[in-house]
Write a structure and sequence with these properties.
Number of helices: 0
Shape: flat
Strand content: 35-45%
Order of helices and strands: EEEEEEEEEEEEEEEEEE
Radius of gyration: 23 Å
Distance between the termini: 53 Å
Number of strands: 18
């Protein structure tokens, strides 16, 4: 336990990514602890020109991760079921580059899931890793959330918010959904943010009523959000979750 071990990545075994380490190496089948991952990749000089930004995207890493690019610590992420990404534009160089990820799946009492749970504690980089090119100004985060869920309501109100990657005012952000008949443009404030209400143009009784998401009817609506020429497409279901005494209610029903 007191020995200092230096990893030699060039001589280390390889592992398919995305995957868990439990099923790829029998020695790691029950393993809970740290594994270091290393990947080398090349960047052309043409990719470093211009104003575009480069994001290093992880679909999921279980559970706790530290990311390094070309020897520089980029950031830390905790949580095995959410995607995350980092702007690594200034860390890339022409020619060979490398990314190292320290992954730790040890359980802790303060984490979710906690130390006692009823499914397998997989470890590893369990979803895709991508190097993504985006414009200098791009949509960093957005949210669409149902405000009204009364079954008798003819109209539904949906709150919309979005945030750019930098504080830049007077940028046009458009939210568009053909099926919901929504198309509305917002203008960012000094912080590069927008917020407001959008209302689907649907009416009860005309064969185009707004559908709430449920297991029996998992309805998703196509949504496009644009900033300049940059567009993000998503499929979103709208529902409400609340509690009443000891019951959990989905769309008002137990």
């Amino acid at each position: 336990p007191e020995d200092l071990i230096e990893y030699d990545f060039d001589k280390s075994p390889t592992m398919q990514i995305p995957s868990d380490w439990n099923t790829q190496d029998e020695k790691l089948f029950f393993y809970e602890g740290t594994v270091w991952f290393y990947k080398q990749f090349r960047v052309q000089s043409s990719e470093l020109r211009g104003s575009n930004r480069s994001l290093l995207y992880f679909g999921a890493v279980n559970y706790d991760s530290h990311v390094y690019v070309n020897g520089q610590h980029v950031d830390h992420h905790s949580g095995g079921f959410t995607p995350f990404n980092y702007d690594v534009t200034d860390l890339l160089k022409e020619g060979n580059n490398n990314v190292i990820v320290k992954v730790d799946n040890k359980r802790h009492a303060e984490d979710v899931p906690t130390q006692i749970f009823d499914w397998w504690n997989y470890g590893g980089i369990t979803r895709d890793v991508k190097l993504v090119k985006v414009p200098a100004v791009y949509l960093e985060d957005y949210n669409l959330q149902l405000l009204k869920a009364d079954a008798k309501a003819k109209n539904r109100e949906i709150s919309f918010s979005a945030k750019l990657n930098k504080a830049e005012a007077c940028q046009q952000v458009t939210v568009f959904s053909p099926e919901l008949k929504i198309e509305k443009t917002f203008t960012t404030d000094a912080d590069g943010k927008v917020a407001g209400i959008v209302t689907p143009s649907l009416r009860k009784g005309k064969g185009e009523a707004f559908s709430l998401w449920s297991p029996e009817n998992p309805k998703l609506y196509q949504v496009k959000i644009s900033v300049g020429v940059n567009t993000i497409e998503d499929n979103i279901g709208f529902r409400t979750i609340e509690t009443r005494d000891k019951q959990i209610l989905l769309n008002g029903q137990p």
